[in-house]
Every structure is written in C-alpha cells, then in structure tokens.
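Hi team,

Filling in the usual template for the complex we talked about on Friday. All components are listed, including any nucleic acid strands or ligand strings, so the model treats them as one assembly.

SUBMITTER: L.P.
PURPOSE: interface mapping
COMPONENTS: two
RESIDUES: 272
SEQUENCES:
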Amino acid sequence: MPPPPPVPLVAYLTLSAILFVLGVAGFLIRKNLITMFMSIELMLNAVNLSFVSFSYHLKQTDGHLFTFFVMVVAAAEAAVGLAIILTVFKNRATLMVDEVDSLKL
Amino acid sequence: MDPILFAIFAGIAVVCGIVMVTQRHPIASALSLIGVMGSLAVLYLLLGAEFIAAAQVIVYAGAIMVLFLFVIMLLNAGAEPKPLRSSYLAGFLGVPMVLALMGLLGYLVKRSFPLDVTVRFGDFTGGSAKAVGDALFRKYLLPFEVTSVLVLIAILGAVVLARKEMD
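RESULT (copied from the run log):
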C-alpha cells in the first residue's frame, strides 16, 4: 500500500474556515447566552489554527506568540463575560437573549 | 502517518463543532467544544507548535472550559426551549448566506495557496518552549507585560461583578 499523499496547507486553512463559520452560525442561531459565548470561543480557536498554520508556512515563531496572546485575552474575556452572565441571571432569572431586551429593569 | 492523524482529528473537530452548534443543552455544547479544542491541540502538534499545543490543553480545554461548566452548573441552565414560531427568513436567507461565507473563505484560501504547499511533521521546530519563550521575553516583552495588566484588570472586574450581586 503506497503512503497517502502529504497534507496540503490548504487543508488546515479550510478546516479553520469551517470552524469559524460554525462559530458564526452558532452565535446567530443559539438563544442561550452561555452557548453564544462558547461560539465566540470557537471562532477564536479557528483563527488560532490559521495563525499556527501560517507560522508553519513562513517558518517563523511569531504566529505562536499571537496565538498565545489570543489565549490570554480569551481567558480574561471568559472571566469577565461569565461574571456578567452571572449578574444578568441574578437580576432577570433567565439566560435567553430574547428576554433580556431592556437596559434597565 | 501525518495525513491519517490529520484526517481523524480534523473529522473529530468538525463533527464536535456541528454538535456544539446544533445541541440545545449547554452542557452538551460545552463538552463538544472541549472535543474541538482537544483535537485542535493535536493539529497544533502536527504543525510543530508544541508549546501552543500544551497551552491549548491546559488553558483552553482545562481552565476556560471548566469555568464555563462551573457557570452552567451553578445557574442550572437547562435546554433551550423550542422556538414558538420558526422564522422562514432565517431558513431561506441565513443558511445560504452562511454557506456563501464558507465558500468565499474556502475560495480565498485556495486562491492564495497552491496545493503543493504541504505540511510535514518535523519540518518546523520553532515552536518549542525555548523558541517561544525566547521570542516572548525579547521581541514581545512589552505586549507580554501589557497582557499581565489586562489579566489583572479582568480579575478585578470579575471580583467586582460577582460581589455586587451578593448584597
């Protein structure tokens, strides 16, 4: 059995595009605040995959550093965002975005 | 070995992504997102990014997703109710537009990179902890320090937001 052909770089970038589009779709269809937030994380991950594959292609470490910074920002964003979601739930007793439609109670 | 590993883990990532978007229950979404992140870590390894793969497992799949699961369980979030009336506009306009976005991205990627640019495991060794740390503490020292301030602010913000709802 001959060895399978090597993986083109395009395959990685296409996977990244697919995951990003799934994140966009999830952000638009889901009504639950937490699931929408997780869709944003999926989009960040998709872009990270692009960064790492470009870094491989250019044979430079810089893309890894960008991925690292994206991870740190995602961690900070998750902490603050989930605290906001907790506060919203305490005040309104719901997580559905359709019902959170007024700025002031 | 490379193409087989890529096929397996790319497949797992796409399937878990679809499950994450289509599931109504947040716990199911969170668990499949962990699946996506784990398989992405393997793909990072194939691309020669050892440090980033480890950080992906520890920070993303570990810390961030545990935070998500804690909040889901703390709020006792159940499954989303089925919508009373489904929007026809969403079905007729939204789905084709999402597919169009994917097609456009795929076309651009295909246009800018020929198929003979391939990935071979071991060709790029600049992703070790040593190389990344070297770049982090020399070339990117200022952004790194600014990031620490950002994380500090995020901690303060989270504490303030969580404290306010107690009294």
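MY TAKE: The two ends of chain A are 68 Å apart (CA to CA). Chain A touches chain B through 72 residues (CB under 8 Å).

Thanks, L.
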